[in-house]
Amino acid sequence: DTEVTQTPKHLVMGMTNKKSLKCEQHMGHRAMYWYKQKAKKPPELMFVYSYEKLSINESVPSRFSPECPNSSLLNLHLHALQPEDSALYLCASSYFSGTGTGELFFGEGSRLTVL
Amino acid sequence: TQLLEQSPQFLSIQEGENLTVYCNSSSVFSSLQWYRQEPGEGPVLLVTVVTGGEVKKLKRLTFQFGDARKDSSLHITAAQPGDTGLYLCAGDNTDKLIFGTGTRLQVFP
């Protein structure tokens, strides 16, 4: 199984809503990532979890709150978002060896629209 | 801040033409990866280059890593409509991947 599964595929939310994006992988990868991708732009790193601990936060606003309940799951909790947060949110995982990130396996993404 | 600049940003060509995409940085990376992303999908890894001067071939795609491990190129021979997509280079600096600015390729039949 070489899949990273993201749900939901599409999400529309208001600025006062609270919602969550979910990501799951069963490849035994110990590093998981959240990226944000705006239209026609490359992915921008948001968070990195290594061995279920948050290792990198790229100065992401606190209205985005990541959570890694176990080595297979990664969540992104959303609260009080702004319309400019509308984007494709990509989850990825990799076999983190400590000497390099290695190949990233991406999910299909969750397309978020904030009204 | 480590930046990876790709050129060109956009490329629109006819089937059968050749093309080269460049990925340049002022930083040294332990390795460099190339991904392709199609609409509605996440990026998919094409190749990883590790050694300075390394050349890797994947069917009609040829990847080269610069001697100083700061730049890379992707050459496509006889492009096909199925090659259409967003091409992304990504530098590995051990704890994270830094994506390049991207090259959007459109190949017309």
Overview of the structural elements:
The complex is a heterodimer of chains A (115) and B (109). Chain A is mainly beta and 115 residues long. Helices cover 0% and strands 56% of the residues of chain A. Chain A has strands spanning 4-7, 10-13, 18-25, 31-37, 44-50, 53-57, 64-70, 73-79, 87-94, 105-106, 110-114. In chain A, a hairpin with a 2-residue loop joins strand 5 (44-50) and strand 6. Chain B is mainly beta. Chain B is built from no helices and eleven strands. In chain B, the strands form two sheets. In chain B, strands 2, 4, 5, 9, 10 and 11 form a six-stranded mixed β-sheet that branches. A five-stranded antiparallel β-sheet of chain B has the order 1-3-8-7-6, with no helix packed on it. Chain B is globular, with a radius of gyration of 13 Å. Chain B starts with a strand and ends with a strand. The mean pLDDT of chain B is 94. The chains are: A mainly beta (115), B mainly beta (109).
What is the strand and helix layout of this fold?
The complex is a heterodimer of chains A (115) and B (109).
Chain A: E1 4-7, E2 10-13, E3 18-25, E4 31-37, E5 44-50, E6 53-57, E7 64-70, E8 73-79, E9 87-94, E10 105-106, E11 110-114
Parallel strand pairs in A: 2-11
Antiparallel strand pairs in A: 1-3, 3-8, 4-5, 4-9, 5-6, 7-8, 9-10, 9-11
Chain B: E1 5-7, E2 10-14, E3 19-24, E4 31-37, E5 44-49, E6 55-58, E7 61-65, E8 71-76, E9 85-92, E10 97-99, E11 103-108
Q: In one word, what is the shape of chain A?
A: globular
Biggest interface, chains and residues, is: A-B, 26 and 25 residues
Per DSSP E runs of 2 or more residues, the count of β-strands of chain A stands at 11
By secondary-structure content and strand pairing, the structural class of chain B works out as mainly beta
What structural category do the secondary elements of chain A indicate?
Answer: mainly beta
Strand content of chain A: over 45%
Largest sheet of chain A: 7 strands, mixed
* Whole-angstrom Rg of chain B: 13 Å
Q: What separation lies between the terminal Cα atoms of chain B?
A: 40 Å
| Share of β-strand residues of chain B | over 45%
Q: Helicity level of chain B, as a percent range?
A: under 10%
